[in-house]
Task: structure prediction
Amino acid sequence: MAGLRGRAPKWDRFNHWAPGAAVLVLLFWVLLLAAAALTDRSELEPEAGPAPSTGIAEGPAGDEDDARDRDLALYDVIAERFAAGENYHAVAVEEQRARGFPVRPELAVRLPTLAYLTAWLGQEGMIVLAAGLALLTLLAWYRRLGDEPGGEEHRTIALLLLVIGAGMGLKPQYLVLHEVWAGVLLALSFGLHRPGKWKLAWLAAAAALAIREHALPFVLLMGAMAMYRRDWRETAAWGFLVLVFLIGLAVHLAEVGQLISDADPASPSWLVFRGLGGWTSSIALSSTLYLLPGVVAAPLALLPLLGWAGWKSNAGLFGLLLFAGYGVFFMLAGRDNNFYWALMVTPCWFMGLVFLPRSVRSLWNSARGH
Result:
């Protein structure tokens, strides 16, 4: 124990906080967790969460199980028709229109990358690819936790939490969901990245961005952090990736735009201010927290953020900014049935729990003036 206390200042972000500031931070977190419990918005009961399926999208109203099945089936059919030689954009618009799914605005039609992969590899190949990505992600984080201060001593539990976080989406029936793939690829990129060693992380993030545009905040944060470190080469690399993505997205939207009209069904706005409940319910319904009552799951969804905040390391700072940023995104954007967007971040989200006890203890000691 004496040895652990001696090493703590190397990574504990809260060790040197003034008592008054520590009291305010503790009070803030108590109030935040209480607010999360009181404002829980998981109207989608646990049975409608990821347990049977995570595939709710912008589908038509009706029985929720059927809606989820239609959503998953939609991506299956699109991939099958594309593999048979049909044009992706034409097939996607036709299938979404025929099934009552919106095709306006153009972003309602997914990027074609995952359909290309599915057509090329087939279902069995996608399962093998998912398993390979999962193993690579575990290996990347095994090494990164060993390189970061305070990480090695918590590595076993942190990797277990990584498996739990990623396990919800990495099931064969969910591999048609774009967020599943993008989320694992972002976790891989996060684990691979080091200041000055970023090329493999860049490739993983590029693959995630090619599958789902919701990976853009991750890429922008990587670029901002590189700029903060004055690593101009890495900054330019992330900027180049954003530029290439925007060009590709413009081409995709133009292709869709040629196939739709004002008579096509339009999606309700994704800019729906759901507040704190939007954040907590998205995380809860995209993870094993769906098994718990919402009043319990909502505060638990926020606790990993305090752990990330207390880990004084490059990974801890990036994780804090990344997950807080996506949390704000979930508060502002996405309807209740878009909860599965949180699969973009749930693989690494709960790893913050491993640093939570030390963070709370440090804040408490600081508040007492110790």
Notes: The chain has one domain: 40-55+118-367.
